[in-house]
Amino acid sequence: MPVALVCGTRGERGATGDLCSIEELPRVREGELRKAARILWIGAVEFLPYEDQKLRMAPRDEIRRLMVAAVRRHRPEIVITFDPNGANEHTDHVAVSRFAMDAVPAAADARWYPDTGAAHTVDRLLWQAPVHAFELGARAEVRNEPGVDYLIDIGPWREKKHAAMQAHGTQYAGLSKVFGKPGGLVWEAFRVAWGPRPVMAPAADLFGAWPAELAADERG
């Protein structure tokens, strides 16, 4: 299944991890993200032309046009973005959520920016689950947590995900402290923002209706 990633900034106001100068950071951060994307088989990576920690000030019509164009170009079945609180209340994360939830329905309306391509309707828009990803493995009853509509066992891809995390060298010290805890790389979970809900939650496949174990039972 092809995956595309749209990033709002190049993180130029973040930490360097003593790997580069602050002037070099935008280029380095972009390279890190592209390397991580290659490890995870993400086929397309796009960057929007906005400044780190100032994304909320992006011109509304301009960023809507750019994001509508991206949706129409890649024509996804599912879009995943931050919840309205930005997962950790980072102002850029909150802004991405707001702009994405504006652009995705706009992409389905042919009257918006007809020069950006044919209208496209996304089937589902998902947020991360209310439980942080690095805490999911420590929750004894994670399947019963409200907002955990999709629960993906990442065991088969744990090493690959860790390698992708390591690719973010300027941020890895902080990431490793969080995801290095017991249960830090066990599950990924998502919440339905809008669109059809899984028949039974939590489902084990973003593109399916039933958890994997129930699907296996159905096959006999």
Question: What's the structural blueprint in terms of helices and strands?
Answer:
Blueprint (H helix, E strand, L loop, with lengths): L3 E6 L15 H15 L4 E7 L9 H15 L3 E4 L4 H4 L1 H17 L16 E5 L21 E4 L4 H10 L4 H8 L7 E8 L17 H8 L1
Parallel strand pairs: 1-2, 3-4
Antiparallel strand pairs: 4-6, 5-6
Helix pairs in contact: 1-5, 2-4
Q: How would you characterize this protein structure?
A:
The structure is a single chain. The protein is of the alpha/beta class and 220 residues long. It has two domains: 1-122, 3-Layer(aba) Sandwich (Rossmann fold), CATH 3.40.50; 130-220, no CATH class. 35% of the residues lie in helices and 15% in strands. The chain is built from seven helices and six strands. It has helices at residues 25-39, 60-74, 86-89, 91-107, 158-167, 172-179, 212-219; strands at 4-9, 44-50, 78-81, 124-128, 150-153, 187-194. The strands form two sheets. The protein has a four-stranded mixed sheet with strand order 3-4-6-5, with helices on one face. A two-stranded parallel sheet has the order 1-2. Helix 2 (60-74) crosses helix 4 (91-107). It is globular.
